[in-house]
Design goal:
Helix content is 31%, strand content 28%. The protein is α/β, with parallel strands linked by helices. The radius of gyration is 48 Å and the shape is rod-shaped.
Amino acid sequence: MSDYRIRLTGVQTIFLNGCAVLKKGYVVALIGALPFIFSLFGYWSAHLLLGGDVVVMPALVGLPLYQAVPELCEREINIRVVGFKEDADLESGLVVSQSPFSGQQIRQGQAAHVVVTRKPPKLLAPRVVGLLPESAQSLLNKNSIVAKMYELNAKQPRGVCLAQLPESGTALEKKRMVVYRASSQDKPMLLPNLVGRPIGEVRDLFAPYNIALKVTGMQKTRNCRVKEQRPLAGSFLYTSKPFTVHIQV
């Protein structure tokens, strides 16, 4: 009776050992199949996430957005604006670059990245009225504005900006302005008749002005009289520029 039980126990032992071996084989096989399972799962997930078929990317550069969007919708491609390029000469919303490029393959459901144009913000005319020439020109250069200058006689210091067109704060379409500046306060004066006057008196007369005297002849004292002058009496002269009066005594 005891031998029979021993034999049964041996059979059970063999059976249990066989099951253990089989289980170990299944585990090894399962481990070996894991890369394939994960690869299959990844492909299935990518297929669900990225969409369906592969399509060819159309040419979008040069198209306005309202035309580019239908082109992509027909192929079930999404669109994403990733940047803007400011250009005053182009209309807003034109596609200037795309990714993927035209002709490349893209999967349905993916996004096409585009850069489109837009108008730069309007430039407003700066205020130059009251500024001296250097400050006004620096402000104009900073904004790339070309200004046409006109001069007007005024009491203000020379070069000070008196007026401008357009007014400050007005939109500049072509970055051009007109600026009026104060001209020299120098007014033409008439050369008086110097003939017969003492040379000392003539020197005192011209001392406050930017006028040089070139005297020829025998000059003994301040009382020597002027015999001849050039330019003649009645001529216009400007004291803002060096001027020479020729006198013979």
